[in-house]
């Protein structure tokens, strides 16, 4: 059967047929089998396929994590028998399913292509036939040989899209889906062109499924006038909630009033993971860039970078299903697993326990960073306070160096200075060390951070953040 594609029909518009055969005006119902779907389209019989249908078929609006598990299990049970898989699915929640499957299906080396349609297959102007035929071709690797697209993806209209980057953008247009923060994986015209450099690499490890997901999560979208007590009431009434996706403004900004921040701190104190994503269709969260997001950082909220809402909620479900360690889940939410986000965000935190003129600490560089392209490196110092209350200000120098031979230190050291007046001491100190950090990450196993002031101070909290791209 390795020359075949398995079509898995979960439901949706694409598999609807007329109640009365030959009567195009009769009501639509779900097809009972592949013959009913394909009989009016002989071209579908030209492809080597088998067919599996969920019983009962599921309306897209009724999609549930249990259904994601069932899809993953069907693929797992048949994985060694087929060249690839096509999942027929309703369009409304297809992006959630494709995102969830991308995390559940581990070490894929075969295509899993989801598709559907805006108009049923039996309608004259349906988009279903083109979507289905092309999805079968991609899943069967018929165009370019084996293992062309070893990941979960969606084919719709003329585009092949990464499954955990997809959003449904239009309820009626045939170009219904898009990946706002990632380019297409391929385009279909007279030819089907696969953009190989954008495809996830083939894994050499054995395929398996990981379906332990935690669905006690919620999405909260802020808006002007939202009363913080409404948010708090949700968690007081539902103490078993374990995760929250918080949709904020712009680059990740939220209200800065004390009442809102106190609610975020309350949620964090309950061991609930809060992930910040933007309400904007395109763009990324940049926490700490403005005070409006810096206070969220201090309240324990983590960045969702450029995750879509669908990928953010399913990734959070997946990670919470794997671990009860809140800090571990927070860390992994900011690191790419299977192409769902553009950047990786690593935080290294240090709390100096003495008031002194100098503060020094070292952190090891994770192996994953060394293989990435460094995009940005920022030191954030919060809560600097001089011991001498009479001083007019503080001069601070920050120096980075690596664990390399002394004779080479001059090539891998960077020093910056900043002046903080008494009036500005309450503000965060943010300094970029991009160029220096790139050298250190590429050549060292650890980075030393040395901070020095011209008077004894309480250093508060220090965070060194690195943003890198796979």
UniProtKB/TrEMBL annotation:
SMART domains: Asparaginase (SM00870). The active site is at 13, 13 (o-isoaspartyl threonine intermediate), 91. Residues 216-333 form the Asparaginase/glutaminase C-terminal domain. Substrate binds at residues 60, 91-92. It comes from the Bacteria. Belongs to the asparaginase 1 family. Its EC number is 3.5.1.1. Residues 4-198 form the L-asparaginase N-terminal domain. One of its GO terms (biological process) is aspartate family amino acid metabolic process. One of its GO terms (molecular function) is asparaginase activity. SUPFAM superfamilies: Glutaminase/Asparaginase (SSF53774). Keywords: Hydrolase. This is asparaginase. InterPro entries: AsnA_fam (IPR006033), Asp/glu_Ase-like_sf (IPR036152), Asparaginase/glutaminase-like (IPR006034), Asparaginase/glutaminase_AS1 (IPR020827), Asparaginase/glutaminase_AS2 (IPR027475), Asparaginase_C (IPR040919), L-asparaginase_C (IPR027473), L-asparaginase_I (IPR041725). It comes from Propionigenium maris DSM 9537.
